[in-house]
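Journal club prep — side note

Before the paper discussion, L.F. wants everyone to see what a predicted structure for a comparable chain looks like in token form. Sequence:
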Amino acid sequence: MKKILPFVLMFFAVFSVFANGSSEESDVVELELLISDDTLEGSPMAKAIARFNEEYKDKGIQVKMNEIAYADQKTQVLNRAKAQDLPDLIKTSDDNSFSDFVLPLDGLVDDSNFARSGIRQGELKVTPVNVTAVGLIINKTAFDQAGVSYPTTEEERWTWDEFLAALDQVVANSDCDYGLVIDHSQQRINTILYQFGYQGISQDEENVATISTAKKGLDFIKSLYDRGYSPVSAGLGTDNAQSMFKTGKVAAHIAGNWVYSDYTENITDFEWIPVLMPYQDAKATCLGGNYLFAFQGTGHEEEAVEFINWFYKPENYAQYCKDGNYLPGLTGIEVDYDVEGMEIFNMEINATSNAPEHDADFARANSGVTVGNCIRDAHDQLIAGEITSDEAVAYIQKVYKDTFPFLSVE
């Protein structure tokens, strides 16, 4: 045994070196950034991470991006929380589901210039990676072919009646088969509802939900399908609105500014351009976006905060927004975009009523409790002819009553 013991000790010493790496390597903290990728969202963040890793290669911090499907994100994070194996950072549009595990950033990150509030449960927890806005993109080639002008200034903005009249002319005098497609998204549906006077949570009375104000907009949306402006299959999401617009057979698409990268890269057969959306009772767009935040309990909280602060330095952040054609989540950031037309979405943000953000504030104040996609679900049944608009409103009202018992629902 005396002869064997030195060999055994030497074996474990060598194994330890291979298992743990050199002492120099062990000084490098590798942060995992979890991201849901749809083949377009990941690239700008990957470029930002590459710049960070180059700058920090001798400073002991490196970042590795872990890309997963959006549908798997919530389940994976919650399971990893149970296993005490959370990623260090996450980029996500879901800023509510993980609030119990998020690292508070008060005093660690400057939130004075964020375009949207990062306060959750009374603390700064999330930072807006970008702001998204719903807008209108048209087939410029088709509009020009039909000799129809389009609005790029507030003075030229259509009413909805004027917009539909313009679509009639375009479809009659171009190669388009349909006038309009709308993404199968509650956010895009809500945008039209707000333009027709919808207000989910009353601005005049505390703890009152005024869901009945959705009826006018729902009736109008139903009329778009009944009158043939769009196929019902697009409204139900059976056919993808974004894919349909790229065929060149649709005159206009109500979408989010994030389609810009896809259209810039993949539309080659016709010209397209963002223009101002029509209005009815109000000018409105719904804001969205993604958030960047750190998880607590990873042991790498300090390094994660270091990355967040680096990310939001103006020169780094402006480059990220340029790479992704994103609207900044920070105010005062000037982005030298390679594409034209992004200013249209900023015009929509500046012109919108406060109704969408008022409802969003209510949702943020009640994070962890949500009505889900109840408006989209009611919309789907309505345009499929399964229920009336009155029944759609009643369904939405019931969901609100069941979800928020303290609300008086009208």
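L.F.'s comment for the group: The chain has two domains: 21-132+288-337, 133-285+348-409. Keep this in mind when we get to the figures.
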